[in-house]
Amino acid sequence: xxxxxxxxxxYVADLYLRSFALYPEIRINGVYDIDTARRDAxxxxxxxTPIASMEALFEAxxxxxxxxxxxxxxxxxxxxxxxxxxxxxxxxxxxxxxQMDQAHELTQLAEAKGLRIAxxxxxxxxxxxxxxxxxxREDVAGKIRLVYAEMDDDFIxxxxxxKWTSDSGAPWPYADEFRVGCTVEHAGxxxxxxxxxxxxxxxxxxxxxxxxxxxxxxxxxxxDFSIGxxxxxxxxxxxxxxxxxxxxxxxxxxxxxxxxxxxxxxxxNDTPVKYRKRFTLRRRLMNAPFAKKLRLPKGETHAKLxxxxxxxxxxxxxxxxxxxxxxxxxxxxxxPDLALHINEVTLALQNAGETTGAVxxxxxxxxxxxxxxxxxxx
Length: 378
Description:
CATH class of the largest domain: Alpha Beta
CATH superfamily of the largest domain: Dihydrodipicolinate Reductase, domain 2
Pfam family, one: GFO_IDH_MocA_C3
Helix content: 25-40%
Low-confidence stretches: none
Number of domains: 2
InterPro entries: Gfo/Idh/MocA-like_OxRdtase_N, Gfo/Idh/MocA_Oxidoreductases, GFO_IDH_MocA-like_dom, NAD(P)-bd_dom_sf
Radius of gyration: 20 Å
Domain GFO/IDH/MocA-like oxidoreductase: 130-261
GO molecular function: nucleotide binding
CATH topology of the largest domain: Dihydrodipicolinate Reductase, domain 2
Domain Gfo/Idh/MocA-like oxidoreductase N-terminal: 2-117
Distance between the termini: 33 Å
CATH architecture of the largest domain: 2-Layer Sandwich
């Protein structure tokens, strides 16, 4: 059995439990939340054991198991630190921490204690991301020069978000979502793909703004729009846009010397990966009107989750990867230095404002191995 203990029984916890249901080898030791009513409702719904305190949860957690930190983002640092100090591996929801000094402290503490720490998102491990990455490695589109990545979610301040609830009845934490910001919440979905594909980012040139603050119920709001140019050490440049204002668009385009590889949606683990070859016809430069679908060899990839709500993502891919890495005594693909670099790039985008300009990244990460079932395309 692979053992998981959970701290935080809010909205996102239900997404993890729906995913864990795909893995009969996962055992949930227990759940702790400072809101006992929320904890009990969650445990009643999923038939889990409520735990009265963090200390009791630590005692119930196996040394080879992990603690899943699903708390409010502003609590991630304190909770993860407490878990590490108690001698437990930690998988945290994004971000690793809201400040870089805190993120550094967590990774250093984990290393000093010989523990693992990782941070969501884990969709890098998905079939779509792995197919895309295999296409990059095989130069399907030639050398990739430019990337366009969109994470726009429509005009959320005008959405009926107060009616959104999870499977066990947890309300969408709208005040916290507006306070944390869409960049911290969503930039990682594409950063976690692009960084393993193209290596570390050297420089971020970004801008961010809060354009609809008066439309939200939160007392303090993070930017609801950001745009950044990411200059990778490999020479690739990516434009990443995040907003909760512009019409829904999660398209990703990798522009290469021979054509364009693209997907329409990163929140679905088996979104088709398409390739359009570039060619000339008489005096015109064109992209093929019909896209070729790129596929991995037939066979098992990972468990898939049906769509419910905004996403069809298997949230368990990251925790399972960490648990298997601990069991097999191998490096985890969701490494602490990758989490640290994602955190740094994300905060550079979020905090750019109108005048920050170029920011040099200080962190780097070791190369990430692709999944064994995704080493090459069909």
